[in-house]
From TrEMBL:
Transmembrane regions: 20-39
GO molecular function, one term: acyltransferase activity
Listed CDD domains: LPLAT_LABLAT-like
Cleaved signal peptide residues: none
Entry keywords, A to Z: Acyltransferase, Cell inner membrane, Cell membrane, Membrane, Transferase, Transmembrane, Transmembrane helix
Cell compartment(s), UniProt: Cell inner membrane
GO biological process: glycolipid biosynthetic process
Keyword Plastid part of the UniProt annotation: no
Pfam family membership, one: Lip_A_acyltrans
Source taxon at top rank: Bacteria
Cellular component GO terms, alphabetical: plasma membrane
Organism from which the protein derives: Marinomonas aquiplantarum
Protein name: KDO2-lipid IV(A) lauroyltransferase
Nucleotide-binding listed as a keyword: no
Length: 311
């Protein structure tokens, strides 16, 4: 028997007492999504400052990543960047609420999408296209916006909280024609063979089994390798997706990654990491620095950098 999706599960499962706090949080998130954009940004900035002051673990992860990636920055400059990152991430929470509960058209006037024609050029080849990108703080809102321009099938990861999964699936199905859980390789191939675009975020550490080790800011890190194999087996065009928040709105852009795949998975991973680095340069505070990007060590005997307790 096929496993039930979150949306098909019994309503009794979702109204159990253990989920009441999540539903309360969803109700608050729904109300906050109706606040004007400028107020959301102001509240996000304030909450980001508060989170930075109160956080310990996430702040430690952020500072560790910044020390690894920007060793030439002074301690004071890294501190400023870390604070700006927390503010950006908090603004991203409000953007996530907007993505979940508001029609994408409500934000459309704030969005500029450059080079969207490259998708149509890729689709004319008849082999689909693989859109790859990184995790920046506006990922949810910009994700709903890209769907206004192109028919893209995003790849997602299930959350542990079933109510959160329900809300997120409901949002995705309202915006995208199809969504695919990241382990469902059969559906990924089906979309590409159907000459569709699929969208992956390729900058998180999924462990040794799913990765090759490639440099990211000069340090070897576990980088997913199946994009290389997927491109080789399908002949799909690879497009690099960049997006971010500006002073007045959001900018999205796409560019073809020429010469990919190279036939060498490490070289392919290195290329994608280098393109992500270039994206980070334009908006460093918006990147997910509080994610443990260097969690898996190439040498199993090396300690994790995130076990350090003091800066």
């Amino acid at each position: 028997m096929a496993k039930k999706t979150t949306l098909n599960q019994s309503i009794k499962h979702f109204i159990a007492p253990q989920h009441w706090p999540t539903w309360l949080g969803m109700g608050i998130a729904y109300l906050l999504s109706f606040l004007p954009w400028t107020i959301q940004k102001a509240l996000g900035t304030g909450l980001g400052k508060l989170h930075y002051a109160l956080s310990s673990r996430r702040k430690e992860i952020c500072h560790t990543n910044l020390q690894i990636c920007f060793p030439d920055l002074s301690a004071n400059d890294r501190e400023k960047l870390a604070k700006a990152h927390f503010e950006s991430m908090a603004i991203g929470v409000f953007e996530m609420f907007t993505a979940w509960f508001r029609n994408p058209e409500k934000t459309a006037q704030k969005v500029t999408f450059n080079d969207q024609d490259v998708v149509q050029k890729a689709i004319t080849k008849g082999k689909g296209c693989i859109i790859v990108g990184a995790h920046f703080s506006s990922i949810d809102l910009c994700g709903t916006q890209i769907a206004r321009f192109i028919d893209v099938h995003p790849i997602y990861k299930l959350q542990r909280n079933p109510v959160m999964n329900w809300v997120m699936e409901r949002q995705r199905q309202a915006v995208f024609s199809k969504t695919i859980e990241r382990k469902n390789t059969k559906e990924i191939f089906r979309s590409l063979k159907g000459n569709k675009a699929v969208w992956f975020a390729v900058d998180q550490d999924y462990g040794r089994k799913s990765s090759v080790f490639a440099p990211f800011y000069g340090r070897e890190c576990a980088t997913i390798s199946h994009i290389s194999r997927l491109a080789k087996s399908t002949g799909s065009t690879i497009l690099m997706y960049d997006y971010g928040r500006t002073k007045d709105g959001y900018v999205l852009s796409l560019q073809e990654v020429k010469g990919y795949p190279t036939g060498d998975e490490v070289a392919d991973a290195t290329l994608l990491n280098s393109l992500i680095e270039k994206q980070i340069e334009t908006k460093p505070e918006q990147y997910f620095w509080s994610h443990r990007r260097f969690k898996t060590q190439k040498n199993r005997q090396d300690p994790s950098p995130y076990k350090i307790k003091k800066r």
